[in-house]
Amino acid sequence: MDQHIIAFETSSRICDVALLSVVQGQERVLVLSHDETSEHAERLLPMADQLLVQAGIRRTDLSAIAFGQGPGGFTGLRVACGVAQGMAFALNLPVVPVPSLLAAASCEKHNDVIRVVVQDARMHEVYVAAFRVASDGSGAVSPLLDACLVGVDDFSVWLGQTARRWQASGQSGSVAIVGDALVAYPGVVAQTQIMLADGSRPLRMGGPVRATAEGVARLARGLLVDGAAVAPSAAAPLYVRDKVAFTTHERAQGQGGNPKAQVAITIVAMAREHLDAVAGLEARVQSHPWTRGNFADALDAGYSAWVALREGQVAGFCVVQPAPDVAHLLVIAVDPESQRGGLGYRLLRQAEAVARQLGLPALLLEVRPSNHAAVTFYTNRGFHQIGLRKGYYPAAHSQREDALVLQKNLDGGAQ
Fold first, then answer.
1. Who has greater pLDDT, 399 or 255?
2. Does the active-site annotation cover 366?
3. Of the CATH numbers 2.60.40.10, 3.40.190.10, 3.40.630.30, 3.10.690.10, which one belongs to the domain with range 255-409?
4. Catalytic residue among 250, 282, 366, 401
5. Each residue of 227-261: pLDDT tens digit?
6. Residue 9: active-site member
């Protein structure tokens, strides 16, 4: 039986359409591409029609509609999904969502065991996912680690931690790093060239591959056989970043791709004139906050305390207590209006710098297990659990909550 699948891939600036046809057992793929981010919506359907005319195929001859699901640019993902849904509704066809990083991983042609795709996510972040390459020489890839969002400066740490987990679970073999982030962030290459946990796992830097509509179409053919198609109403983009839109106020602060409006942030030593603002911020973001007196006592005790200033106003702070063998991050906070802009990461880097300047090999902190966002934040930045403090935190209704004790080793550089 003949088969025709049209596929859309718009997770990057490239608007890509492919038509895969299998006629009498012979496969043929026609492709059209257009390089312009802002024109996805107006280009996609005309490009699809052009391919159908070129192939001599009517829309009613189609077997399925496929699209690159993401992650990627939010507008592009919505356009591809919407067009796929609209065509599928009109033609009563199934939709095959294909993860874009899976399609990118499929474009690389080497005999790797594990393939890590690193895709530019803008805002100094990358989307990453890992795939196992089939050992039968077919080049087929299967998901090993779902897509997640990682800071560019944290990628080597993420890779080291992930490699350790692979090693512990018996996932051995060579690793290839591929994706367009290798071009967008050349520092990723420098970091990963010297970074894998066991020091012996072969590491190869691959090409700047990206998802293509042809790759999506070929994967969709197999997924269709496997029963992975969905009804048009169930098709949805794969958003990994949890912030998909920015308010006018956030854009005025430089977030959401508005670099011209960025406001400089400086990190300076905490002084007594900052205490009222620091205590006020702490009270806004913590359920059981430190008091102004607690911060004053920290200064009197000689702890290393820092504030982040935006236009002279306190936007965040951290307090580090030196100890004989480790630095203890006692408290860190960012004003809600300044969150998700990298400020928390800068303050954490400041705390790490303090520890290194004091010659201390590690930075330690406590976090509530219920604070999933914070646990993920620290884990992605190289911290690992070394203990548990029972009943450490006060909680609602006169209860107590345990604390996870996390530590990041600093003497190994990126470890």
1. 399
2. yes
3. 3.40.630.30
4. 366
5. 889 999 999 998 887 554 545 454 444 454 433 33
6. no
